[in-house]
């Protein structure tokens, strides 16, 4: 009798653990997709406008802060003749007029582990990289 009761309690616990893992995985995937969409929208705006405005910076920072703490990096690859010049950081790139063919690389990396990572012990930080080529 006691063995059946213990097995019953363990099976209920295992069921809820599996449900918790499934739910946290779906939340993880939805967050990852949304972070990817935010960076894609910013890259598309940069490529069509031809510069990185303060509005785009506030859009990225404001929307990513809703999903956790993210380290956001901007890199500008500017072609001058045969060589490429790189600018790093938003303060060097913001409000700078870009010419056709310049590339702005936006990368966002999650700094805190998600619930799914905490439960499973996996190291799957949410990260995305988008490249905007000015046209």
Describe this structure in words.
The protein is rod-shaped, with a radius of gyration of 21 Å. It has helices at 2-49, 54-65, 90-93, 115-120; strands at 70-80, 83-88, 103-110, 127-133. Helix 1 (2-49) packs antiparallel against helix 2. The N and C termini lie far apart (74 Å). The relative contact order is 0.19. The protein has a four-stranded antiparallel sheet. It is α+β, with helices and mostly antiparallel strands.
Keywords for this structure?
four-stranded antiparallel beta sheet, alpha+beta, 135 residues, rod-shaped, 4 helices
Largest sheet: 4 strands, antiparallel
Helix-strand pattern, N to C?
Answer: HHEEHEHE
Report how far apart the termini are: 74 Å
Which word captures the global form? rod-shaped
Which strand order does the major sheet show? Answer: 2-1-3-4
Strand content: 15-25%
Pairing-aware structural class of the strands and helices? alpha+beta
- Put simply, the count of helices is 4
Number of strands: 4
Q: Into which percent range does the helicity of residues fall?
A: 40-55%
Gyration radius, rounded: 21 Å
Task: Report the uncertain regions.
Answer: none
Q: What's the average pLDDT?
A: 91
What's this, in brief?
The chain is an alpha+beta fold. 52% of the residues lie in helices and 24% in strands.
Write the layout of secondary structure elements.
Layout: H1 2-49, H2 54-65, E1 70-80, E2 83-88, H3 90-93, E3 103-110, H4 115-120, E4 127-133
